Amino acid sequence: MKAAIGIDIGGTKIAIGVVDENGKILSDTQFPTEVELGPDNAMKQIISHVSEMREKHKEIAGIGIGCPGPIDTKKGIVVNPPNLKTWHDYPVVQEIESAFQMPVRLLNDADAAALGEYFFTYRHTYLHVLYLTVSTGIGGGIIINGRLYEGASSGAGEIGHSVIEPNGPLCGCGKRGCLEALASGTALTRIWKQRLANAGSPIEPTWGGKELFAQAESGDSLANEVIEESSEYIALGLSQTIQTLNPELLILGGGVVIGQPEFYKKIRKKLSFYLLNPHKQALQIERASHGAMAGVKGAAASILENS
């Protein structure tokens, strides 16, 4: 059975797995990215782990790499992701190709997660799919006619950087009022703490998303207000993309959606209000099912779909 290696590079950790054509992970590992030590340090570890995996698994068709943008998938370069501050114009594909002499493909991390969900669950059922992840940030991936659509500069699907509130909070991308700055997991916690401070309520420094949703469940009005607003923003941002692309399937993923079923339900309900009937009737909505390994699986799928 054919298999490929998927590498998911994140700002905190790097995950690597051998994935077969059915989506089964045959071997996997993860380790800290240690951004402050630079990309060469991470690359040494990646090459070491991939070498071990290739020794154990002989039928490897190639290596896929998912990485936060901005990236240049045509040149195989990591340009300057905000959460990989030392990885400027780093030729990640060249480094991997030189080490292993096999096909290597670079793709955006949200695209990788989208492809992982699609290829291993829905590719025999749908042709046009939109994927959204709500986690530390917000990202998206687009499948058109059964193929990942990356756009002219590898930037398709950046739903998180759609401006929803022109005078809203500053986003990491430099704009104001982006969906990511209003409704990501990071934004939820920040906004909640700001409102607690404004109300003179006590705040624990360690509080995060789990505490926010727990407080909302117990009836806290400020927590519920933040969650209602963020789900509204997500539905608003999604509706614009859905009415542009008219997909058959929307997959909602990321830690905030997967970890909070009620949040997922709120987004679905609010989205229904914003969509035109033809788009609504054509659309199926599902929660992501491949968890934290969707990026690894999708990176591997980028090789398997062409082998």
SSE string: EEEHEEEHEHEEEHHHHEHHHEH
Count of structural domains: 2
CATH superfamily of the largest domain: ATPase, nucleotide binding domain
CATH fold category name of the largest domain: Nucleotidyltransferase, domain 5
Q: What is the CATH class designation of the largest domain?
A: Alpha Beta
In the sheet with the most strands, the strands line up as 3-2-1-4-7
* Percentage of β-strand residues: 15-25%
| Unreliable parts | none
Ends distance: 12 Å
Description:
- The chain folds into 2 domains: 3-116 and 292-304, ATPase, nucleotide binding domain (Nucleotidyltransferase, domain 5, 2-Layer Sandwich); 125-288, Nucleotidyltransferase, domain 5 (2-Layer Sandwich).
- Helix content is 42%, strand content 21%.
- The protein starts with a strand and ends with a helix.
- With 307 residues, the protein is of the alpha/beta class.
- The strands form 3 sheets. A 5-stranded mixed β-sheet has the order 3-2-1-4-7. Strands 10-9-8-11-12 form a 5-stranded mixed β-sheet, sandwiched between helices.
